[in-house]
């Protein structure tokens, strides 16, 4: 069990080592290393998702470890409350950034092993605190530098507990 202590409240997450072993282990290691402490949810889109894990206040990007293999072909779906790895256009580019699905986003699921079909790997679920995640969608967002949908007031992961 992972607990994100945010400035809006606690979010408890359960990792799925059975279906996404490499991704869950990668995420847990970042948590144990304290990497997410002080990071912000830097992209929040109401009716879609809340993304975090890569930036500190002021949109200062953190240095991550290398990318991991995409395990999106694990049969899990991007449903409300699930966590998935964020990535670039390269299907195997995920490292530390993740997003929490605010609604069922099945269009993000694995379809096939092509650049367009890989999808986004689900590796965990929120088991407590979805009300806190929903609160994130109430903040005003805007453009900061090259980034859209940035909360204008920081939503910060103050600390992380690994149980």
From TrEMBL:
Pfam families: Pro_isomerase (PF00160)
Keyword Isomerase annotated: yes
PPIase cyclophilin-type domain boundaries: 1-162
PROSITE patterns: CSA_PPIASE_1 (PS00170), CSA_PPIASE_2 (PS50072)
Record keyword Cytoplasm present: no
Catalytic activity: [protein]-peptidylproline (omega=180) = [protein]-peptidylproline (omega=0)
Sorted UniProt keywords: Isomerase, Rotamase
EC number: 5.2.1.8
Cleaved signal peptide residues: none
GO MF annotation terms: peptidyl-prolyl cis-trans isomerase activity
UniProt record similarity statement: Belongs to the cyclophilin-type PPIase family.
Role played: PPIases accelerate the folding of proteins. It catalyzes the cis-trans isomerization of proline imidic peptide bonds in oligopeptides.
Annotated protein name in UniProt: Peptidyl-prolyl cis-trans isomerase
Organism: Thalassotalea fonticola
